[in-house]
């Protein structure tokens, strides 16, 4: 079992995963602006999400969205994408995107 830690710098990375591996993604966020990271539908992982504010942050300052992904299916070539957007706006207007491709054995 291996845990992979990803950040914005890992955008576009390709991972070779096993069924008992875990992927943890930490992306900077500022929900007070209306923007949130959302994962696009994907049946290859179970996904949990939490938001943490910075320890010394003042009111309205940002924090980190943390996504934990656990493989659920073996896949030769897959990809997953996250959009940083306002829920009421069209997905094509996403402020930022993050994604990676993978193989799950």
Radius of gyration (CA) equals 14 Å
Q: Give the CATH class.
A: Mainly Beta
What is the ordering of alpha helices and beta strands?
EEEEEEEE
Structural class: mainly beta
Mean pLDDT: 91
Overall spatial form: globular
Beta content comes to: over 45%
Q: How is this structure best described in words?
A:
With about 100 residues, the protein is mainly beta. The protein has no helices and 8 strands. The two termini are about 10 Å apart. The strands form 2 sheets. The chain has a 4-stranded mixed beta sheet, with no helix packed on it. A 4-stranded mixed beta sheet has the order 2-8-7-4, with no helix packed on it. It is about 0% helix and about 55% strand. The chain has one domain (about 5-105): Immunoglobulin-like (Sandwich), CATH 2.60.40. The radius of gyration is 14 Å and the shape is globular. The mean pLDDT is about 90.
Features of this protein?
four-stranded mixed β-sheet, 105 residues, Immunoglobulin-like, mainly beta
Quick summary of this structure?
The protein is mostly beta strands and 105 residues long. Helix content is 0%, strand content 57%. The protein is built from no helices and eight strands.
Topology diagram in text:
Elements: E1 3-6, E2 14-17, E3 22-29, E4 35-39, E5 45-53, E6 63-71, E7 75-86, E8 96-104
